[in-house]
Specification:
The structure holds two protein chains of two kinds. Chain A is of the alpha/beta class. Chain A has four helices and five strands, in the order βαβαββαβα. Chain B folds into two domains: 87 residues, no CATH class; 332 residues, Cytochrome-c3 Hydrogenase, chain B. In chain B, a hairpin with a 2-residue loop joins β5 and β6. Classes of the chains: A alpha/beta, B alpha+beta. Chain A: Belongs to the peptidase A31 family.
Chain lengths: 147, 430
């Protein structure tokens, strides 16, 4: 496996489902050697999924203040901010999972995080308009990483 | 009389499943209020389920929680099978229990190692713990992975399993597939025994609960995936009578609804299960409990971490037993034909009792759904603990008192999915 794309989130929490939506959209057009997987953000599962993989791409929703919903942020290992306010339902978000992975030498060779600013993480299905509008750009950007 | 007012703000109640907010008000040395604010997603799901087909609740309700989807799936299946008058083939029922063992192992391992142990070992989180005690955190992750492996094989996915259906499973694994897990589960059992030894050496604050304890019980096993309800006060009733005994009510000191058992405070979860069902543990788990110093009952919520560790030993012993006894069922599921009526299901989620009730119409559509999750049942007991813990520790500075409150909440491994955010501790004239 050369790369793994990890979609984090819960599709029953509106924009928190952007990671799973990306996995569903991208799965049919992945090059050989690239996997796309769903993850609820639970750190042990993240570590298992990305440990030792040449390239891991994590896609998650974030809540920001002030917020411009639909904005796509891209970080590489070393740039991941300490507490970007993960919108996942778990207390240990991606930054903490990364720190845990570093403490245990379970990191991918290279990690890229796509964080999409959420407008709505309330209960319900479907992305908000601003996130839906940004979605094609997100798919294109992630595919470009693995081609 | 001196009056002092302080307010602490902590950016979130860390290391619980989801996020919660806590407000404690102390006035002149008396704890006036301790409110744990929880927004309960099951309420949303109850509305969401109305008008859906009777086959859908296992998949829909699994999404309420990423840590205990099997509990939601199992209670949902039980309730619908009850409504439709279906009994499972014993081999299928055993497979359901084996899947549930996987969830207990992974959920308890996560809570013990990544969420709760740092409190006892003096670390802010599992990451700092890993820097000094890498072997400890590695062991926790190894254990969790063993639970995940069971869930992946039987449920076809580690989170939100997709192989579960009303009446059983879409596909039953081959015997050889399950046997393939034996080495991993055997190693996990050794890790689980080491876990009991580790946590039994922690220092536990004094706190003894006198609440009633409520758990599911079956005659011949430590109850997990089904059973009747029993309490330490001597109550005993079938799941069909759950809503006659467990009633949610408004209370003065909190805005949240609190569940009461026959009008009194009660607790579900590891302490209740251990106290009511200890005699039904398998030999290794029972010996581990004795070695860990657990008596015939356990009423100190800080020791719940020890009970969880013993339950991981049990779940692995039981998983290995079920795996060896496994015979591929003739059919992986029973046919479930809908009929109008009401069904009830209850099972032991890792953090406590999870009750589902569905009413179906003649077309198999859901007319009403009720889900009573463990955290809302335990909320009154958690708040009662907080009042006592704060009252007994008013000499601590705000930082240490806040940390102790968080540890107290984590004793219950609460599953709080909400968007609330601040821990406000207002202390007046203490």
């Amino acid at each position: 496996m050369t790369a793994v794309i990890i979609g984090i989130g819960n599709e029953y929490r509106r924009d928190d489902g952007v990671g799973p939506a990306l996995v569903a959209a991208i799965e049919p057009c992945l090059p050989d050697g690239v996997r796309a997987v769903l993850c609820d953000g639970e750190p042990a599962a993240l570590l298992d999924t990305w440990a030792g993989v040449p390239l891991a791409i994590v896609v998650d929703a974030v809540q920001c203040e002030p917020s411009s919903p639909g904005t796509i942020h891209r970080y590489e290992t070393g740039e991941v901010p300490g507490h970007p306010g993960s919108a996942s339902t778990h207390a240990l978000g991606v930054p903490d999972a990364l720190r845990l992975a570093q403490a245990l030498d379970r990191v991918p060779d290279r990690l890229v995080v796509y964080a999409v600013e959420a407008a709505d993480v309330g209960f319900g299905t479907g992305l908000s308009d601003p996130v839906q509008l940004a979605f094609p750009e997100l798919v294109e950007a992630v595919l470009a990483e693995v081609r | 009389m001196s009056h002092r007012s302080r307010q602490l703000k902590v950016s979130s109640l860390a290391r619980v499943e989801g996020e919660g907010a806590l407000r404690v008000v102390v006035n002149d040395g008396t704890v006036e209020r301790a409110e744990l604010q929880i927004y309960e997603p099951p309420r949303f799901f109850e509305a969401f389920l109305r008008g859906r087909k009777y086959t859908e609740p296992p998949d829909i309700t699994a999404r309420i929680c990423g840590i205990c989807p099997v509990a939601y799936q199992t209670s949902a299946c039980l309730a619908i099978e009850d409504a439709c008058g279906v009994e499972l083939d014993p081999a299928v029922a055993d497979l359901r229990r084996l899947l549930y063992c996987g969830e207990w192992i992974q959920s308890h391992a996560l809570h013990i190692y990544l969420l709760h142990a740092p409190d006892f070992l003096g670390y802010p989180d599992a990451i700092e713990l890993a820097k000094d005690h890498r072997d400890v955190v590695e062991r926790g992750l190894r254990l969790k992975k063993a639970g995940n492996a069971l869930m992946e094989l039987i449920g076809a996915r580690a989170i939100h399993p997709i192989n579960v259906r009303v009446g059983g499973f879409y596909r039953a694994p081959a015997r050889a597939e399950l046997q393939g897990l034996r080495p991993q589960l055997s190693q996990a059992l050794r890790d689980a025994l080491a876990t009991v030894r580790m946590v039994s050496g922690f220092t536990f604050p004094d706190l003894e609960l006198d609440h009633d304890l409520l758990a599911v019980r079956v005659p011949d096993r430590y109850a997990i995936e089904s059973g009747d309800l029993h309490s330490t006060s001597g109550l005993s009733f079938a799941v069909g009578n759950f809503s006659e005994h467990v009633v949610e009510r408004q209370v003065e000191h909190s805005t949240a609804l609190h569940a009461a058992l026959d009008n009194h405070l009660y607790l579900t979860g590891p302490l209740a299960r251990y106290t009511l069902n200890r005699a039904r543990l398998l030999p290794l788990a029972r010996a581990a409990a004795v070695e860990a110093g657990l008596g015939v009952e356990c009423r100190n919520p800080f020791r719940s971490i020890v009970v969880r560790a013993v339950e991981v030993v049990y779940a692995l012993e039981e998983a290995l037993r079920l795996l060896d006894a496994y015979v591929v069922p003739d059919r992986p599921y029973a046919d479930v034909v809908p009929r109008p009526g009401v069904g009830h299901g209850v099972s032991e989620a890792p953090r406590g009792l999870l009750y589902h009730r569905y009413e179906l119409d003649e077309d198999g559509l859901i007319r009403s759904a009720v889900i009573v999750p463990p955290t809302s049942q335990n909320q009154a007991a958690i708040e009662d603990d907080l009042r006592r813990v704060v009252g007994a520790n008013l000499d601590l500075d705000d930082g240490r008192l806040t940390a102790l409150c968080e540890q107290t909440i984590r004793n219950y491994d609460p599953c709080i999915s909400c968007s609330a955010h601040f821990l406000d501790l207002t202390v007046e004239g203490r």
